[in-house]
Amino acid sequence: MSWARGFDSQGREIGYAIRAFCDHRSCNVRIDRGLPFTCGGMVDGGEYGCGNFYCDLHRSTTVTGPATVSLCRDCMKRYEAKYPSEEM
After folding, report:
1. Model confidence over 27-65: pLDDT tens digits?
2. Domains in the chain: how many in total?
3. Residues 6 or more apart from 21 whose CB is under 8 A from it?
4. Are 76 and 60 in contact (CB under 8 A)?
5. Are 33 and 68 within 8 A, CB to CB?
6. By CB neighbour count within 10 A (0-12 exposed, 13-18 middle, 19+ buried), where does 6 fall?
7. Residues 27, 45: Cα–Cα separation, whole Å
8. Cα gap 27→82, rounded to integer Å
9. What is the average pLDDT score of the chain?
10. Is residue 46 assigned to a domain?
11. Contact, 45 vs 71, CB < 8 A?
């Protein structure tokens, strides 16, 4: 199975072959809708993210147990509020 093209649960076209802009409001950085740009690192965001697609400027990296995921600013705030004692 290829991640070049597909659809998320909302019917949005996703995959590394899908060219798009960062989902952060007023950001014009060109990205693709592959997993590296996904908030939460998984289709639909996984356990911690929202599943939208962001450039490097609008994502932060956090360690979540055995996994390392990138989260948008809003999801990072929610993560930090839920897990305040964990190291970032």
Report:
1. 999 999 999 999 999 999 998 999 999 999 999 988 776
2. 1
3. 27, 28, 29, 30, 31
4. yes
5. no
6. middle
7. 20
8. 28
9. 89
10. yes
11. no
Q: Per the domain annotation, does 29 fall within a domain?
A: yes
Inside any domain, residue 87 = no
- What token pair was written down for 83? 């897990």
Record the pTM.
0.86
Can you read off the two tokens belonging to residue 41?
A: 């690192």
Amino acid present at 1: M
Tally the residues of the chain.
88
79 phi-psi bin (left φ>0, alpha ψ -120 to 50, beta other): alpha
Question: What is the span of the domain harbouring residue 40?
Answer: 6-82
Intra-chain end-to-end CA distance of the chain, in Å: 33
